[in-house]
């Protein structure tokens, strides 16, 4: 960690390079705890904690989908929106190969490989989001507009409760 206690991850480097105003939110990481744990630890609504999921289409082309922590991705609807036959989650090893991040610490910022990014459209309606900063047990808070400005995601309506 640097002197200001912000971990220096590839994600943080990207945020700083794009002059994104973000807040640091370290928390006690729990294996397989997911967004429920991070929301509880930070005292925020799980709907505002955004998970970064790495998936691939039927041609094995990787992509990132950003979803509310309290929702799931309809892979059928995502495939339809992308114009492909099928979309499925990557294995943890494949996701790490594409992103450079450990599962549980995956950020959409600073991935090893450039991939298309899809964003559940209702995320843009939130005042503030909390998303992984590139390390297990570390989220960053920001306005969704900042994420959209830097990542330029394709918005989709693929969330299910």
Automatic annotation (TrEMBL):
The catalytic activity of this protein is classed by the Enzyme Commission as 4.2.-.-
Q: What is the enzyme's main class?
A: lyase
Asked if the keyword Cell wall biogenesis/degradation belongs to this entry, the reply reads no
- Residues spanning the signal sequence: none
Which family does the record assign? Belongs to the prolyl-tRNA editing family. YbaK/EbsC subfamily.
Give the matching PANTHER family.
CYS-TRNA(PRO)_CYS-TRNA(CYS) DEACYLASE YBAK, CYTOPLASMIC PROTEIN
The name this protein goes by in its record: Cys-tRNA(Pro)/Cys-tRNA(Cys) deacylase
